[in-house]
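NlpC/P60 family protein
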Amino acid sequence: MLAGALVALSAAPHAISPHTIAVAHADPEPSTKELRAKALKLADDLEQLTEQYNGLKVKLAQSQRAAKVATENAERQEKSLQGIREKVGTLAATSYMQGGSDPAVSFVASQDPQAVLDQAATLNYFAKQDSTKVLGLMQAMQAAQRARKAAEARAQQVKQLRTELDSQRKKVTDTYEKVRGKLVDRDPSQLASLPVIGTGKAAQALRYAMGKIGRPYVWGAAGPTSFDCSGLTMWAYKQVGINLPHYTGSQWNAGTRVSRSELQPGDLVFFYADLHHMGIYVGGGKMLHAPHTGDVVKIASMSGRPFAGGVRVA
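Structure:
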């Protein structure tokens, strides 16, 4: 084999040169301390992004309310417009029979009444009229058009804000998951110090439960100083207004079933065929749970126990 390699090199003496050989140098992996510092900086960035997210939610709600009001106003003006159209019908019919080019007729019949109103002659005509019916028709049509345009503008704003909202949500989640994953792979114990992402009740319940890390397992206990496995989940969800029974079998039926790949932070996770143990999913294949007598509430890997399923309560 060595002889064959030498023959190949002699046949192409310029194919490989010491000056063209690239030596790959891998960037040194950050230390756990550096990774933690980066994670803490990220936590601050995530807080800013979360407030932007909350701000967009407020603006979105405001735009939705404004769009609803504008649409209702347009509908009211349309009803008013239809009534005035019927009242002015006689005026239009008479003008047609007389063969005249009454601007009122053009105004009533036109598909684009604003274009008719924009004509100087038409405006001059209406300025000289004493007919409250004609003036009322003009005002109602203009008001309906303004209201409709306002509704369309608000609807467009709602759509744009929703896009921004979704973009911010994805940015927060993706950035967090990337850095959290690196840190947890290096040191699983760091997971407890990282923020829980999300504004829903499941994320809030998980935050409450995380605050109980280190509290002792006591059979039949449901907080606030000691817990068993279903007592911990019951207590955490009670803090956000959701009442769960103090029994794993009942909590198994308290929400929507989700697969292991669909789990999100705050979901309930169950183990063994008889569902005799459970915890709260925190992400990265790990859960927060109250293990057994002599142990404390802590974060642990879900591996090593037969996974029965997940339940999304909120």
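DSSP finds nine helices and six strands in the chain.
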